[in-house]
Amino acid sequence: MRTDPRPAPPTRGSASPPRLWFADNLRILLTSLVVLHHIAVMYSGLPLWYYVEPPTGAAAGAVLAIFVVVNQAWFMGAFFLLSGYFTPGSFDRKGPGAFLRDRLVRLGIPLVVFYFVLSPLLHAGSFPGGSPLETYLDTIGTGPLWFVLALLVFDVCYAAFRVAVARRAPRERAARPPAFPMVLAFVAVLALATYALRIVLPSGTWVPGIDFPSSAYLPQYAAFFVAGAVAYRRGWFLTVTPRMGWAGFGLAAGASLVFLPLALAGGLEAWMGHGTLSSLFFALWDSAFAVGAVIALLAFFRRRLDGQGPLGRYLSAHAFTVYVIHAFVVTAAGLALGALAWPTPAKFALVAAVALPACFALAGPIRRLPGVRRVL
């Protein structure tokens, strides 16, 4: 094992840096949360999934809605942080041309297939009628792969930035975790940017065509991707300490105790955006919660979960495939159990127990199909 916690500065064509098992394990958790998140959406009554069932009770619907809102506050930002972290090393090893070709294959092909083929199939049970062409055009979309589209855009922007500054010598810095005042400044800037965007794009705004379901979180996604790229250069992932993890936990918990009640006091419409005071408090909460939760999880996973056995390696290798296929598995499970007259919590638990393992189990055979491993 390397004694220097910072990966050696890579050069084009050099070998990949040592595997960060804790980051892989965190990605498994995040992928699993995506599956559970969409199961919760399916049974929350929110009209945001391919198949939806109204909750059997107000309390069950409220709990699922809270689960969805809390997840939304941080877990996709964490995905972008991890993606940003591994982007500079990939660019350094491959160069701009090969890097972009690889991104177009690994991200572009699944996106195009889902957009034009799989999305209409997922809508097959709810065709509104009309001409076949109109129906098809109404049902194409990115679905859950909006993340892949956004990541592809971020990767292209990163490559353009690296080409633009290619003649500048990189600044070498000592590997150390970010100072907590820097973290607080990042939270403050992120919260203000989020608040400003939600004046024109309130929470819940749907961007047509690309099916972007969470445009109000764009500042978080872009900022976390950039933070991940910076973290790679400065060795943040490998130098975050347990003390920093506890500070992150305190930040997330403190924001939940202070800012979240202030946001909710204004009512649902008030904290969704439109420049209200409640929306400012909500932006402060989800920004602080996201940053704190991610720091806490990085510290915990690095200290406690920095290794993998055969099962962990399988789950890690197939996490992206699960992300691509999970919409079919979740929707099929919901439809298959639609006639089951169980309370919402019981159906959620049953579908979660079936769909989550099924996603990972199916990912293996799918990746063994000819040509699929090159993409997924």
Automatic annotation (TrEMBL):
One of its GO terms (molecular function) is acyltransferase activity, transferring groups other than amino-acyl groups. InterPro entries: Acyl_transf_3_dom, Glucan_succinyl_AcylTrfase. It comes from the Bacteria. Residues 22-363 form the Acyltransferase domain. Keywords: Membrane, Transmembrane, Transmembrane helix. The keyword Transmembrane applies. The chain crosses the membrane at residues 28-52, 58-83, 104-125, 145-165, 177-196, 216-232, 244-268, 280-301, 322-342, 348-366. Pfam families: Acyl_transf_3. This is Fucose 4-O-acetylase-like acetyltransferase. It comes from Nonomuraea thailandensis.
